[in-house]
Amino acid sequence: MLREANASHVELTLAAAEWQRLQEAAGARATLLARDATAHYARRAAAAGRALAEQRRPGVGEAPGRRLASGSMGGFLTLSEAYAELERLRSEHPTLLTELPTQGKSRQGRPLRVWCATAGLGECTRASARPAVLYTSLVHAREPQTLMCLLRFLQVTLDSAARDADSQAARLVQSRKLLLVPVANPDGYEWNRAHSPRGGGMRRKNGLKTCGRESGDGVDLNRNFGHKWAHDSIGSSGSGCSEEYRGTAAFSEPETQAIRALVKEHRPAATLHWHGWGEDLAFPFSYDWRAKLSVADLSAYQEFALEMTARNGYASGRAWEVVGYTTNGEADDWGWGDEGVYSFTLEVGNSRDGFWPAPSRIAPIAEQSVYAATYLLAAAGAQLQVHGVSLSGASSGGSSGSLVLSLQNNGLAHILTHRSVCVRADEASTSLAASPASEAGGAARWSHQDGRGLCTPLPPLKARASHSLPPLAASWSRAERFFSLSLLVGEPRRRSLEASELEGRREAAQEGGLAPASRSRSLGQLGHPAALPAAAELAVTAMKVRVSTDDRTATTCNEECLCSVGEAAVYTLAAECRDKTRRGATCRAPLRASTGTNYASGKADEFFVWQPGAYREGGVCRVSSTTRDTLIAVYATCSRVGAQEPLGFSNSEGHTATVDFPCVAGREYHLFWNAEYMPGRHAFTLSERCDGGRCLRATGRRSLSIVAPRWVRFRDRKKKQRA
Ligand SMILES: [Zn+2]
What we know:
The active site is at 347 (proton donor/acceptor). By secondary structure, the protein is an alpha+beta fold. The chain has an eight-stranded mixed sheet, with helices on both faces. A seven-stranded mixed sheet has the order 13-14-11-17-18-20-19. Strands 9, 10, 12, 15 and 16 form a five-stranded antiparallel sheet that branches. The protein is globular, with a radius of gyration of 28 Å. The site of zinc ion has 4 residues, from loops.
């Protein structure tokens, strides 16, 4: 597998057979950096360990507060050290963390242990009303960083919740449930410890004898899940010695059965599987790029993924988009395809880190996934976010205008009760008033409430639905670069818990249950009413919007100018937010491509937009790379959150890539180039042709009316002669 690119080379970790193949490939120039990956990792860990001991200071990027535990296996925790660490966390937070009954035993008889974290541990023993998220790590035994990521996330969440009752962590553990499988593949992990006690073990699979030689044994657990298992032999294998051996049947292995049983018992709203490495976040489907997600589902995935990667800058997309190849029998495909659970795979660390990152990198990488895991936990229930801000109609001096805020329930549970939302200007130099336009509009209005500012009703919001608040007339001081507003979402009307829960369940049943309306089968799949969320479970109740007073903000900004990175729940509206988006980084800010030869930089993944012009009907467009090992995808549309409707995909290994797709003159097509595979500037060509059948040229009505009848007459004459 090969990932990281810079201008001159890529570094890869390969099995011996793959190395052989690479050397045989035409045009490949490869240098062997380390013959034995295990020895390389162990040496690096030992050297780094000595250096760290001399420095005696926290790792770069490590958050303040308690440090992440350090283990004896090149800095990583062994199986027993990991369980001891979990036991220590449990004894420190006895009201928040508990161990659930084991989910059977591994192939070699080790208990498959599961933990649950939530306030009120009774919620852990059954499918409760609290939205749950399942987190797994060490599905692949040679990815120990995944365990450290899970532990760090758990530690930060529990410590923050215990320290500060008003923290987001505290609200989350009171309203959500975390299910944790820290060592999903204990046999493989123990094999690595026994054979490489100082770290660097390269066993990926589980403990089953499948190969005849011990180093090749095992089932790849992430090819053993039930959706489209053994769909094809690209990305999974029927051979027992293969690193991607899928097993004899779907769920043949006790380790995957354990995860299935947990999902069926606790009905989590979402799952996060940690893997290494790649610095990306992938979601379904993996088995085929043609596999359909509805536009609503894909938008939800893309939006969650963008939010989850807002702090770590990881790439995100369907697995074939970010990892570059298709695979089957994989956990996310099963979670979403068979169980309707929002399923993500977070690949942590980069190519230099490899499977066993150096000790100094363990804490910083673990820190990178805390926000992603936390966001998913919040999104498992209802959560309100600023969805869009627009400022228009600024006066000539640029110090007043009409402001429209919209809020979204960007979570997986419905908000079932009426609330009120209040907006207040933070500075005395900014004033807000109900816009005359909104007063004329009738129904929803702003009213002044002492101490809270202007308030307006917020109707119940289904999962993923958004709502625009009535316009506000805002004026601000030109002397300030920004003015800022505070939003407070009011509590629902008081009523007894039982009454509100009952009503919540009834309304949820009417409205379609947990997931977005587009997944109409969700409710049936969820089955028992206990899985429905309680009504009042908002994770975010206070938000801040900063608005740039730049003239351009007032005249050209809309929700595209909104950036939400940085502090949680602080949204900035400024022309710079749009300007700083790198051209080509998303389909929303594409580079232009034209018929003929074009160039991709090869430095970063890039989106191009192309408007073919030849045929109104019957045309076929072609994208071809002139460099081997390139990845191309073509999409029909680009939404606010990303490219939709793939029309073609090619991941070429050892040859050039070509994608053909039906196209219509004048329409825009979005082309995605993945740079990871072949670094350096490279050319690609775009062309159009007639599909051989009836084609209509797009050269204007006049030429069509002349060309077509002549052709028809000519054919008619011939027919007549023959007759
Ligand atoms: Zn993995």
